[in-house]
Write a structure and sequence with these properties.
Length: about 400
Amino acid sequence: MNLLSADAVVIGGGAAGMMCSAVAAERGLDVILLEPNKILGRKLRITGKGRCNVTNNCDIREFLNNIPGDGRFLYSALNRLSPRDTMELFESLGLHLKTERGNRVFPVSDNANDVAGALQRCMNRAGVRVIHSSAKHIITEADTVTGVETCDGVIECRAAVICTGGLSYPLTGSRGAGYKMAQELGHTVTPTRPSLVPLESDDDYCAEMQGFSLKNVTLSAYEDDKLIYKELGEMLFTHFGVSGPLVLSASSHMRRFGEAKYELRIDLKPGLDEKKLDARLLRDFEKYANRDFANSLGDLAGKAMIPVLVRLSGIPAETKVNSITREQRHELLRLLKSFPVSVSGPRPIDEAIVTSGGVSTKEINPRTMQSKLVGGLYFAGEVMDLDAYTGGFNLQIAWSTAYVAANSI
Ligand SMILES: Cc1cc2nc3c(=O)[nH]c(=O)nc-3n(C[C@H](O)[C@H](O)[C@H](O)COP(=O)(O)OP(=O)(O)OC[C@H]3O[C@@H](n4cnc5c(N)ncnc54)[C@H](O)[C@@H]3O)c2cc1C
């Protein structure tokens, strides 16, 4: 690479970098986007199981309720580009959107590639130059950005935007390079942790039921015996513990692994209160009065779960159903309404949907996304210490912060 120059170098061609480079170039800036991957938006293209939950069609107050911790940093950025503005922007780029359950917004085509495609068309039209190389360091003089050093040479510029993402799904390119570049310039990086991540359990029965999924169950999560999450939905048992949509969501409420004790409780029959479930058990026990207990639960639970329910109920498997006592039946009832799964920890960060922690927002101006320490240095997306629950909120953080950074340059 010969010596290049640009007004702005956007580092990272993910959701934030594509949005940032397109908007900055549309405003008339000469922009170079650096992305080592041959295709842009590798992570974006696998979001929402390949459908891309682009945003959440809600107001700003509701949005901030979906940010664990202090979401106020985002207030200004969301006012500049709200979820509705984002939807209009994508529609104007020819991407038709639909809103599903929980205000989750998806492309009508159900294809995440179309989201990346819309942004790429916008970038091309605005004249963004894409260079497939990695940024190594940001060069400064008198605490002001003057260039970016890449694996292939130096690019002179007066603004650099770090959009390198977090640490999750490293095969997509997000490997934490931005943290190092920020730290070299004096920025604080708060400890990174996995969020929206499967959970490990020491309960051997999870592995015993691996591959078995539960639909229409209510999952409750407890931190030191205090309820921190409760939702109806789907989950599944795995060789290491539990996973699936409910578990990922529950995990993002668990912010103190290593300090606090976490436990999950599954209501396997959320549609029946204890009285109704007891009546149902009595009916089943009458129907199967002469069977062994272990052979009487087929109407109540999935095959994979029956041996585990039998064991945890404490009722010997060969007990004849007609000799099960009231107390024993109530024990089974408690198990069906509150099946326990202890949590020993999260899966590793590379299996997480998002990274919690990152470049401290205390050192970034929320109105401009500019560093408070280095002139001409900006941040956008997951590289910052910002994350959200599921529902399209994480991508919206990328869109809004990128939009603000681009307009501020
Ligand atoms: C499986 C999965 C599903 C998800 N589904 C959803 C969803 O449906 N809705 C939602 O809101 N969120 C979802 N997320 C989260 C969302 O994808 C991220 O929050 C979002 O992609 C963050 O955007 P970003 O641009 O900050 O980072 P990324 O998208 O991770 O992009 C960072 C880019 O920087 C590049 N890069 C890294 N280092 C360098 C370097 N040194 N030089 C140049 N470039 C570099 C990387 O190659 C990468 O392309 C999902 C995440 C995963 C893993």
